[in-house]
Amino acid sequence: MTATLKAIGIGKRFGALAVLEGIDFDLSSSAAIGIVGPNGAGKSTLMAVLSGALVPSAGRIEMDGRDITELGAAERSGLGVMRTHQIPKPFLGLTVLENVLVGATHAGAAQGEAAYALALGALDTAGMRRLANRPAESLGLLDRKRLELARALATRPKILLLDEIGGGLTDAEAEELVQMIKGLRAEGIGIVWIEHIVHLLMQVVERLICVDAGRIIADGSPAAVMAHPDVVRAYMGGV
Amino acid sequence: MTMAVERWTAQSRAGVGGAALVLGALALAPMLIGPGIVDRLTALFIYVILAAMWNALAGYCGLVSIGQQLFFGLGAYATIRIAFAGVDPFLAMILGAVAVGVLAWPVSLFMLRLKGGEFSIGMWVLASIGQLCVKLDPMIQGETGSSLISLNAYGADLRRNLIYWGALAAMTCLLAALFALLRSREGLAIQAIRDNEEAATSLGVRPERTKRRLFVLAAFGIALAGALWLAQAVSFQPKSYFSVQWTAYMIFMVLVGGIGRFEGAILGAVLFFAVETFFAATGVWYLIGLGATAIVFSLYFPRGLWGAVAARTGVQLLPLGYRATNTET
Ligand SMILES: Nc1ncnc2c1ncn2[C@@H]1O[C@H](COP(=O)(O)OP(=O)(O)O)[C@@H](O)[C@H]1O
Ligand SMILES: [Mg+2]
Questions:
Q1: B11-54, pLDDT tens digit by residue?
Q2: Quick check: pTM over 0.90?
Q3: Which of A92, A106, A159 should one mutate to test binding to chain B, selecting the residue with the greatest count of B CBs within 10 A?
Q4: ∠ CA B13-B18-B19 to the nearest 5 degrees?
Q5: Which CATH topology does A1-80+157-239 take?
Q6: Between B47 and which of A217, B105, B118, B269 could a Cys-Cys bridge form, CB atoms 3.0 to 4.6 Å apart?
Q7: B125 found inside a domain
Q8: Nearest chain B CA: its distance from A17 CA (Å)
Q9: Is residue A190 within 6 Å of ligand 1 at its C-beta?
Q10: Are the CB atoms for B242 and B70 separated by under 8 Å?
Q11: Does a structural domain hold residue B263?
Q12: B249: in domain
């Protein structure tokens, strides 16, 4: 069954600072959307609002037609909305496998052997099998990003929100990442992928959204969005 | 080869088997050893409970309380109160600890909203308030205190052995419960909260609920320790039971033994017990020595003695974690 996530008129302010304004979009678990935009545009904040980590100041969020605006991140993760963090947040006192098991046994709602299978599968998919017994504190930044992904995968997500997981990869690693995300799509997981490396996004998503200063300034096919005059201006202005 | 997850090793099976043998021998010990040693071992069991409970909160969940004497004092007080109503003193100890556990539930609702240092200090303030409230009870007669007189219904030897077995049973049950809890998925949640509460929440962990359960378990365990201490000491003065020294002992035992390690708290309690046995007579120097040792450990050996042993040798007697096998593709 396809799941749908809908954001209606989302606004978010921190005190006097309006970080998001009037964000409308919807996606289904059969879609893959890319999000681009200059630094500080509000992309990560949007992820936080969609996943329930932040409460929006305006608007509402629906999943499969049900209003989930009031649900916190833990509840939403159980419904299948799962995000990764741009700045990785590993559990430093646990091993890689244990980090992933937290997701499998909570949002993933699996126990015993089923949880192990879920966690090991996620480690395999994220290419972290050999690191399974390493303390998370010993991982470098790239592996910490992979761990974000592996943890998220172990929760059996329906909609996966990925926040800049491709930065710093070699060409070969980036290609692996693209193949992996294509694989997730094929399994019926909806993808929202924030990434600055547009040519990677283009290989996976069929729709691109450009956010600038808290607003969606373009939404459509990747080629059309990248050619949109406002997008060109936002990028030129942002440099 | 397909990967698998293992939790027990030959070494840890031996560890648990060894622990069972030690506990069995301790259960028989009162037949063989003198009354003075029975009393000292009872104190050791109480220390193990205190260390294990503080370690569960601080080492596994990041909840560093410097007010756990609140539950120690309340456990003793509740026992006296219930025994005063005509209940058998041993039953009163259990009921008293349960009552403190029940009270800890609403207390946790507001205390756990405090983060980090605020929580630590807040608990200490609460312990002081608890002491003042207990002193208001006319039966306690202010700082004069009261005593568990109904224990006198038991003969001296029987009483000593019953308290010993009670402390041994309490220690065994609490350690077993904690071990089971920390090995369960709840144990993963507890440690995830310690390391990053936001990330834990995003993975489906509910921090409030998880912390509250652990807080209540620790309150119950420490209250039971307070009740046992009262049974052994018989007399109750608010000042000594609600003294911050109890939490200082807990911190010492956990830091020296190894914070966040199940075996570490037990080792720390045994070391503290040995130090106390040999040096307590030196008075002030003893307290200064304890404080200095705790500081040296937290600065230079943050993993504690058990942490150092485990890192050197890879020994894990009571494993809480998970290991993947066949990780090479
Ligand atoms: N917790 C916060 N408090 C105050 N300001 C914030 C907070 N989080 C983000 N911001 C601000 O919101 C804006 C958008 O940030 P962010 O969503 O991280 O942008 P992006 O991911 O597009 O680079 C930035 O100006 C940032 O400083
Ligand atoms: Mg960002």
A1: 889 989 999 999 999 999 999 998 899 999 999 999 999 999 99
A2: yes
A3: A106
A4: 100
A5: Rossmann fold (3.40.50)
A6: B269
A7: yes
A8: 23
A9: no
A10: yes
A11: no
A12: no
